[in-house]
Amino acid sequence: MNTAVKTLKRGDDDLIIDNVPYRSRLLVGTGKYRSFEETQRAIEASGAEIVTLAVRRSNIGQNKNEPNLLDYISPEKYTILPNTAGCYDAESAVRTCRLARELLDNHTLVKLEVLGDQKTLFPDIPATLAAAEILIKEGFRVMVYTNDDPIMAKRFEQMGCVAVMPLAAPIGSGLGIRNPYNIRTIVENAGVPILVDAGVGTASDAAIAMELGCDGVLMNTAIAEAKNPILMASAMKKGIEAGREAYLAGRMPRRAYASASSPIDGTFFS
Amino acid sequence: MEPCLGNLDMLVIINGIETTVADTATIANLIKQLELTGRIAVELNKQIVPRSEFDSRLIKDGDVIEIVHAIGGGQSTYNW
User: Fold this and answer.
1) Strand, helix or coil at B17?
2) Does residue B42 form part of some domain?
């Protein structure tokens, strides 16, 4: 059998988070869509298997028969990743995770983010550390949103987070990977999956994250705020796959000058 | 003065809103009174109330209750 030409088959290259294999390396959020139907179709098109959602107060005394997101995004079909979006202190984040665990029948995989301020939505690192410590002690499996700081990424790994998720650019900014060297350094030193979380704007950004060696990308706004979210979801899926394959294939070296592709020997003109 | 016994109304705070409930109410009674359906989770004075305890857990005057459900979200949004 000719093994020289080996294409990547599904299942050959799974993303493993907390000992669970996933075929898709794209994780998607469910915010900012126009309807639950659109959310459902975009997630379908993205091929994502891990889907984030938020936990919020139920409306008291109004919208009694409001449709429920979980009716559209079934926990049987997807791995639900509750997040702590909107939390600006450790206590709120911990309480949110406990509520999510109860809401989702003892589900322990969570996305922790503790934010510093509303303008930048950059993480509050001391508060994130404090929350992560409590959550890990309580048995949560923590995927943590952090800065593109290699030292902090390592710290979160060492304290027991199951995945570290540095931002590429501010949440919802769509600015792409602003600091590829830091992302690469984080990836090179990592012993847990590294996922770019936040800042991706379009499919090439997702591909770049994967070419840098990231294990996956989590995004929401880039798909939900596209003019055609379903088509963008499909584009992101391909961008992730292309970037992953390019990373595994190993790119050619960069050169300052040209290097001819056709042999020079044997030309009949001289 | 006769002491009042039973059927007193209590003032509790549910999702930030002051609400009156009967003094013998359980979490399950409250959920029914609010006509909440679907998947929810409940926190009573910052402690989770497991679903299995909804029927037995009594509400006290001044309790602070949070009732939540899942909504769309990815990373943080500014507009929730």
Assistant:
1) strand
2) yes
Domain with B23 in it: what CATH number? 3.10.20.30
Domain count, chain B: 1
* Residue B60 maps to a domain: yes
Q: What was the ipTM of the complex prediction?
A: 0.83
- Total-model pTM: 0.89
- A100/A105 Cα distance (integer angstroms): 8
Q: What are the structure tokens assigned to A131, written together?
A: 């929350």
* Lowest-pLDDT range of A224-238, B5-19, B30-44: B5-19
Query: Which of A40, A50, A60, A63 to probe by mutation at the B interface, max B CB count within 10 Å?
Result: A60
DSSP B53: G
Q: Which letter does DSSP use for residue B51 in this model? A: G
* Domain membership flag for residue B78: no
Structural domain including B64 reads 4-69
User: Under an 8 A CB cutoff, do B75 and A113 touch?
Assistant: yes
- What 3-state DSSP class applies to A134? helix
- Within 8 A of B40 by CB-CB distance, chain A residues are 58, 103
Q: Would residue B47 count as lying in a domain?
A: yes
Distance, in Å, from the CA atom of A107 to the CA atom of A47, rounded to the nearest integer, reads 22
Residue with tokens 């950059």: A122
Residue ranges of chain A with per-residue pLDDT less than 50: 1-5
Exposure on the CB side of residue A106, measured as CA atoms within 13 A: 2
Q: What does the block give as tokens for A146?
A: 């952090």
Residue B1 CB coordination number (10 Å): 3
